[in-house]
Amino acid sequence: MSEIKEITVQELKEMRDNQKPHQLIDVREEHEADIVSIQGLLIPMGEVMDRVEEIKKDIPVVVHCRSGARSRAVIEALQNNFKYTNLFNLKGGILAWANEIDQSLPTY
Fold first, then answer.
1. Which H or E run contains 93?
2. Which end of the chain is more exposed for a tag (fewer CB within 10 A), N or C?
3. pLDDT tens track of the chain, all 108 residues?
């Protein structure tokens, strides 16, 4: 099993604020993204393996879900099956973003 790298919501905010190249992937379902989104590319967990060509390999890719569990599973599958080395799990997911970065966001 490959190691899963993690990034905190503060680190992601810093990347965004400094316009550091990265890709943000949201692996939640569409109805969840309709409730709250932090502008990631929506690829629901069940579609990831079919849409793997949309996930970049040349810049850091931050994968998130609601709390961090689904994104962790997705990263594990991508690392094991497609040899990705640039993936980071957003620790605490969108709930952590809403709690620590932007309290105006709805949570569910």
1. helix 93-100
2. N
3. 569 999 999 999 999 999 999 999 999 999 999 999 999 999 999 999 999 999 999 999 999 999 999 999 999 999 999 999 999 999 999 999 999 999 999 999
Q: Do 93 and 107 form a contact (C-beta atoms < 8 A)?
A: no
Q: Hey, which residues are catalytic here? A: 65
**Quick one: CA dihedral 82, 49, 40, 29, positive or negative?**
negative
User: CATH code at 67?
Assistant: 3.40.250.10
How many structural domains is the chain composed of? 1
Would residue 62 count as lying in a domain? Answer: yes
